[in-house]
Amino acid sequence: MGLEMENEELETKNELKKKPTKKTKEMLEENSKQIEELKDEQIKLNAVLSELDKEEEAIGTRSALKMKVTHKKFGNGQVVKQEGKYIEVKFKDVVKKFVLPGCIADKYLEVEDEQVYEYYVKCNENHKKRMETELKIKSAIYAIQRHEDAIDRLNAKLK
Questions:
Q1: CA 39 – CA 81 distance, rounded (Å)
Q2: In this structure, is residue 152 part of a structural domain?
Q3: How many domains does the chain have?
Q4: Is 33 a member of any domain?
């Protein structure tokens, strides 16, 4: 008979441990709610990325090779090499590397043709929006992981 009472007491204690408190339930619900909101935000941000892809496609691509530019310190120069977004500009005494589209859009290098300048400004704006959106997506991913970890910790307390 004594053995049966011990088993009943253990079962009662185990049942008490498994029942979450009101606060734990609220915390679990809040973390789940946050995860859902972040997932919705991710969907919206991915849609923004798709729109940016379309804008980038509409802007098109343009080679900078042989383009004439002016730099405040180095003077007049010409683009002699382009590898992706990196260009090399030969000035009178030196060859310098720059990153497109920012070097033109931010006027580190100036161009005479207003259409060329506008093209690089649009490219730069698109690039900045893309970087900002990708950063928000990464932040959402990390936030979801933090909330999932919090849920795991709360569930571990219940065991």
A1: 43
A2: yes
A3: 1
A4: yes
Pairing of strands 75-83, 86-91: antiparallel
Domain annotation covers residue 120: yes
Backbone torsions φ then ψ of 45, nearest 5 degrees: -65, -35
Range of the domain at 102: 26-158
CA atoms within 13 A on the CB side of 128: 10
Residue 12 lies in a domain: no
- Three-state secondary structure call for residue 149: helix
- pLDDT tens for the chain, 159 residues long, are 445 555 555 555 555 556 778 888 899 999 999 999 999 999 999 999 999 999 999 998 888 999 999 999 999 999 999 999 999 999 999 999 999 999 999 999 999 999 999 999 999 999 999 999 999 999 999 999 999 999 999 888 877
